[in-house]
Description:
Elements: H1 7-16, E1 20-24, H2 28-41, E2 45-50, H3 51-57, H4 59-73, E3 77-84, H5 87-95, E4 100-103, H6 110-126, E5 130-135, E6 140-142, E7 145-147, H7 157-167, E8 171-174, H8 195-204, E9 210-212, H9 220-228, H10 241-249, E10 252-257, H11 259-275, H12 282-305
Parallel strand pairs: 1-2, 1-10, 2-3, 3-4, 4-5, 5-8, 8-9, 9-10
Antiparallel strand pairs: 6-7
This protein binds glyceraldehyde-3-phosphate, 1,3-dihydroxyacetonephosphate (13P) and zinc ion.
Amino acid sequence: MGLVTTTDMFKKAYAGGYAIGAFNVNNMEIVQGITEAAKEVNAPLILQVSAGARKYAKHIYLMKLVEAAIEDTGLPIALHLDHGDGFDVCKSCVDGGFTSVMIDGSKYSFEENIEVTKKVVEYAHAKGVVVEGELGKLAGVEDDVNVADDDAQYTRPEEVQEFVSRTGVDSLAIAIGTSHGAYKFKPGQKPQLRFDILEKISKLLPDFPIVLHGASSVIPEYVEIINANGGHMPDAIGIPEDMLRQAASMAVCKINIDSDLRLAMTAGIRKDLAANPDHFDPRQYLTPGRDNIRDLVKAKITNVLGCDGKA
Ligand code: G3H
Ligand code: 13P
Ligand code: ZN
């Protein structure tokens, strides 16, 4: 099996009340940790690459790593561009073999967002590639886009039908209170998501797959290990797992996770180097990092996403 699109995955996830994990990748150990976990629990996967990751690792290396993972595991895997910020990067990923792209026009006006999204959809669909659009703004940092908390805006349900019908997107990322990075809520603030908005949107767009960005739980165990071994990440707070389970049981078919992977990898590396100051072979400290990623992804798939056994 080669790379697949997300069409079939989302259809089954919607009907089954679970979600597919979309994990950000930028090197071999991350790809291996994620795909080993998915193989163990027989889960479909979306591996996603940001523009920054593409710049770091180069398109061709990421492409070949993911092809190797498919050959190694036999799993259905979609390769997705995360947060494409314009037509050119989306076109480059479509031409370069990705099976899914996100055009993130959320920083534009409604009309400009429709215009650029429609252009990407026309190009991508002609080549059999699916497209994720975004309406509403998440707070937080992603590559060059840094949305201040005050600028973040929940998705307006009254806009979703027009956006989807005029653009032809295959899935829609929405803003209901999640945000990118490891500091999603202020210390003492009670994590909350606007499930009422998700509910309204799913009624307006029946059977349509919704995407949740900024969905890391910022697992406290990894933050503690990082802080106990020379790191400094006080006040890192993420999305509680029960909220993600609730979203997955509703119209959310794709849940994006990056920060938790970073924490898992860094915790493994920091712990190894702190305990073994003599280690200087990268394989010595990258192995525990990769193992942590495998354990994290397995737990996400089985305890949160519910897509185990669905490959
Ligand atoms: O949504 C953002 C992802 O976590 C990607 O982050 O742009 O730093 O690679 P990045
Ligand atoms: P986190 O920072 O919560 O992992 O979100 C990742 C994401 O949304 C990638 O697009
Ligand atoms: Zn995102």
